[in-house]
Fold this protein.
Amino acid sequence: MQGHQLIALTLAAALGAGCQSNKQMAAPVPVVTTQTEPTEQGTVVGDDRTAMEAAVDAGPSAGSPLPETAQTRAVINPNAPDSYVVKRGDTLWGISKVFLRDPWFWPEIWQVNPQIQNPHLIYPGDTLRLVYIDGRPTIMLQRGDFARVLPRVRSQPLEGSVTSIPYETVAAFMSKPSVLSAEQIKNAPYVLATRDLHVAISDGDTVYARGFTAPVALGTHYNVVHVGEALRDPDDNRVVGYDGIFTGAGHVTRDGDPVTLVLTESARESVAGDKLFVGGVDVALDFIPSAPKSKVTGRIMLVSNGVSVIGQYEVVVINRGVSDGLAPGNMLAIYQTGEVVADTENKGFLNSTSRLGSTKVKLPDERNGTFMVFKTFDHLSYGLVMEATNIIRVGDRVANP
């Protein structure tokens, strides 16, 4: 009897183990992984700050910047995080500044992922990781939609990609240009006359225009700009552009030759011969910060809103363009021209109260800002002041950073 009992107990134990094993095999819930997660997450800037805010708020770092090597001229910001999560409102300039001491070296450390369609675009939610490949700093992109998820579907609209500079600032300027190139003036349509042959045109008037190089769609919005005085290069007195004076705006009500428009806005009187420019931004913002390929030295000629003191995110015009090697995205340093002062310690033969015999000494130019080109013409360029560490004025010098 004891032998039979022992056999029965053994069979019962085996059967129980088999049932428990089946329960364990059925327990796991399927998990879908769209991308293998890295083994090291690093220090992630994952709060609500934008890239620029993160760069400004970063505290002192115990480390030191990576020295320049033959492989790259980029110097890593000593406060750079291991990872950064792209936020709504970020710009490529701000993101570059988080990782680099000099943001215009971004192309030297940016590593695109060939498995991602159109990898040059960065979107809110994406994660940028700072890694080192053969000792060289590299920024890798991890799309924000690559995550460990349960087998269910949730969709949401895709946000716009990150632009290099603030879109709103450029849009406000480009919709009402204050500087016109010879190319713009030559190719722009012009006001021919008014319905009642008024000499001066104002809000509510019907105007006729010609000079369109392509068919015009009904409802298209145009700005009316009067061509003012020629703008001369302060270095060699050549004409590099013309003052563009916004006089009004209107929309197309009838196509043909001439085209009919009705003015809906009037800032000052418009006259026959004034030029028409399509409202809105006509400049791409998908460029990346970079240093000019050739040596460039120029001056600030004009600021968009006519202020005497220029600050951050002011649109300015410089007297250098495509013919000087500039391209959208190029970065230039801004320098305040040093004053010429009298050395009163060297008065020569004159007495101690006179300055007439003093030696004149020019003080060094001091850097007071950083400037990014966003639209170029042959001999002039529009750009945005990205940083202003001191007062910037018309006439200040710009040069390679």
User: Anything to note?
Assistant: Residues 369 and 387 are 5 Å apart (CA to CA).
